[in-house]
Design a protein that fits this description.
Largest sheet: 3 strands, antiparallel
Shape: elongated
CATH superfamily of the largest domain: Intergrase catalytic core
Number of helices: 14
Helix content: 55-70%
Strand content: 5-15%
Order of helices and strands: HHHHHHHHEEEHEEHHHHH
CATH class of the largest domain: Mainly Alpha
Number of strands: 5
Radius of gyration: 22 Å
Number of domains: 2
Structural class: mainly alpha
Distance between the termini: 52 Å
Oligomer: single chain
């Protein structure tokens, strides 16, 4: 891979790159399409999967095919009128309501934190270091993910050297790139120290217990208590969160995902009088539509805050 290819590779997020590769493979191998594709073949592909795949998945498949063609220097068939027309027809014929993860509410967060604290004390009381480490890591991941509304990929890309934390004061987490950072300027996220459910205290407890000085913040731990040098994979965040909630007695834990942390923060913020602009700035949303996807429609504060903007 020469330098040009290296920079092109770095310009796309890893999970986006993998999903695009899988989409192109699905078009070629599973459906039997040929690349470069014609507009008619892409339209037939959409029609064949209109009933079995969601609109969002089909939209992602089109984006992947468009990217492949532009990268290879071919005309983009997904922009053809026939493709656009078929996709609009699919949306009209198969309307679906977007599924959203349940928000993790503040009361549930407190329930989980209390349960984790008890389990940590029990593990330390029996000198079960591997279990104590896992529990401290889980608590730090949960509280930091909630109070900052981090995405899964952001949690996996946090590094010790890019976090500055002061007990009782707060912490700053720097990420060199985020989903909304199209210019790759990097973003610093401030995290307050709290009297209860404190993410700063939880992070420092985890860092000190695991003796981490550099590298990924959240890592796997084997049964002997050895902390991996590699960070937790992005695909492991949601199952880990569900496992934490299940073990702490949260009902229907299977309905939660990493988005539950961000939705929980948004629900709490609106209930405590934050306006939409403040919430968008804090989390990093660039438009109103993105923010509203994470806020419960029946939240009585939403209408008040939206009307305040008019």
């Amino acid at each position: 891979m020469d330098k040009v290819d290296q920079y092109l590779h770095a310009a796309t997020r890893e999970n986006t790159r993998k999903s695009y590769q899988a989409a192109v493979q699905h078009f070629e191998v599973e459906w039997g399409g040929f690349l470069p594709a014609t507009a008619n073949s892409v339209a037939r592909y959409l029609a064949d999967y209109a009933e079995s795949l969601s609109a969002n998945t089909l939209r992602q498949r089109l984006a992947a095919l468009a990217r492949w063609h532009t990268d290879q220097g071919f005309p983009d068939p997904t922009k053809a009128p026939v493709v656009r027309g078929v996709f609009r027809g699919i949306l009209a014929s198969h309307p679906t309501q977007e599924k959203q993860a349940k928000p993790l509410l503040l009361g549930q967060l407190e329930q989980v934190a209390i349960s984790l604290d008890k389990a940590i004390n029990d593990a330390e009381g029996t000198n079960n270091r591997p279990q104590a480490l896992r529990l401290k890591r889980n608590k730090a991941l949960l509280l930091l993910g909630f109070w900052r509304g981090f995405r899964s990929d952001e949690l996996t890309r946090l590094t010790i050297e890019n976090i500055t934390a002061s007990p009782g004061e707060g912490m700053i987490c720097y990420l060199s790139r985020t989903k909304g950072d199209r210019q790759y300027k990097g973003t610093s996220f401030k995290v307050p120290a709290l009297s209860k459910l404190c993410p700063v205290e939880a992070y420092l407890n985890w860092q000190n217990a695991a003796q981490l000085t550099e590298g990924p913040t959240f890592r796997a731990i084997d049964r002997w208590g050895h902390v991996s040098e590699k960070g937790i994979h992005i695909d492991s965040i949601a199952p880990l969160l569900r496992s934490i909630l299940h073990d702490c007695g949260v009902v229907s834990s299977e309905l939660y995902s990493s988005h539950s942390l961000r939705r929980g923060l948004a629900t709490w913020a609106m209930a405590n009088g934050w306006d939409i602009k403040t919430l968008m700035t804090y989390v990093g949303w660039k438009n109103m539509q993105s923010a509203l996807r994470y806020i419960d429609a029946d939240n009585p504060f939403i209408q008040q805050q939206l009307e305040r903007r008019e």
